[in-house]
Amino acid sequence: MKAAVLYKPREIVFEEREMPKVISDTDVLIEVRNVGICHSDIHYYIHGKIGDFVVKEPLVLGHECSGVIVDKGPAVKHLEVGDRVIIEPAAPCRTCDYCKVGRYNICENLRFMGTPPTDGAFVEYLTWPSDFVYKMPDTMSLEEGALIEPFSVALYSVKRGGLSPGDRVAILGAGTIGLMTLLATLACGASEVFITDIVDSKLKLAEELGATAAINVYKEDPIKTIKYLTNGKGPDIVFDAVGIERTFTQALNLVKIGGKVVVIGLGFGDLTTSPIINIPCKEINVIGILRYANVFPQAIRLAASKKLPLVKLITNRLDFSELVKGMEMIAKGEKDAVKVMIKVR
Ligand SMILES: [Zn+2]
Ligand SMILES: [Zn+2]
């Protein structure tokens, strides 16, 4: 089978690998169909690392994926050969303290697809523990299935942020995660959603998806505008989908007194001169998000039942052989590209 392997920064080689086999009784063998390119893939592609995770051995990237079951271990009861499935790319140890309380996203021994040393989904076939594989509703396409992973990040953020029906929210950043958070907050009952970015095409898409106001921070002061639109109070929750000093500062200044700031973006450096004083003075709850836990089933049901237009986030569709082209598209910062979707098979 074909695999796209990252050997060193900006060098992906297509090579033939042996077909994986079901070894554990509870594993399934999946023919990979659609895989979205994520910004974390791009980090590894350009820099060969994200923080402490360093690519030392050749690595297959990709973790936003859907596929079809082609074989299964004898203990797998909830899936059949031929089922179209969505893969949750995190396989936790199930025994550490965090796993035991259900917070498996911060598991001490987590295997995450496309993160060293675990190979990801830019391959034709892979095996995965069946309890992290979900059957897709018939109404959902395989492309939509591959968008459930980033949507789960958004839904988990909304849950952890404790959004209440009628809340007003602001989302800083209208990339994939920002736009997914927009869909998730609307689906969960936000009354008004303000979103900011620096690219007009993304803001236009945000408006199409239902944003109350989409603000280009190069043209308008987002704090002034959003405060004005919320009667001077500020939003109940601010989601920082960028995670740089500038957006974190905006979040702390923008959020309502007693409100919440949810940090999803991983753009942070180590040092910040953001007004941390606002955290006690405005009694802000600051909440960090690492991927997701316990939300895939809800994300799938919500996307299917509300017919969420997830596929509108796909701006580019490419074949497996064009993977490098897709990576470069995002690496070079092609500004109109939101989600680049790869059709593996
Ligand atoms: Zn991702
Ligand atoms: Zn664990």
How would you describe this structure to a colleague?
With 345 residues, the protein is an alpha/beta fold. It folds into two domains: 180 residues, Alpha-Beta Complex (Quinone Oxidoreductase, Chain A, domain 1); 135 residues, NAD(P)-binding Rossmann-like Domain (Rossmann fold, 3-Layer(aba) Sandwich), CATH 3.40.50.720. Strand 12, helix 5 and strand 13 form a beta-alpha-beta unit. The mean pLDDT is 95.
How much strand content do the residues show?
25-35%
Order of helices and strands: EEEHEEEEEHEEEHHEHEHEHEHEHEHEHE
Largest sheet: 7 strands, mixed
Query: What is the CATH C level class of the largest domain, in words?
Result: Alpha Beta
Counting helices, strands and paired strands, the structural category is alpha/beta
Which descriptor suits the 3D outline?
Answer: globular
CATH fold-level assignment of the largest domain: Quinone Oxidoreductase, Chain A, domain 1
> Multimeric state of these chains?
single chain
| Architecture per CATH nomenclature, i.e. the level-2 architecture of the largest domain | Alpha-Beta Complex
> What are the low-pLDDT stretches, counting only 5+ consecutive residues below 50?
none
Question: With helices defined by DSSP (H or I, 4 residues minimum), what is the helix count?
Answer: 11
| End-to-end gap | 11 Å
CATH superfamily of the largest domain: Medium-chain alcohol dehydrogenases, catalytic domain
Helix content: 25-40%
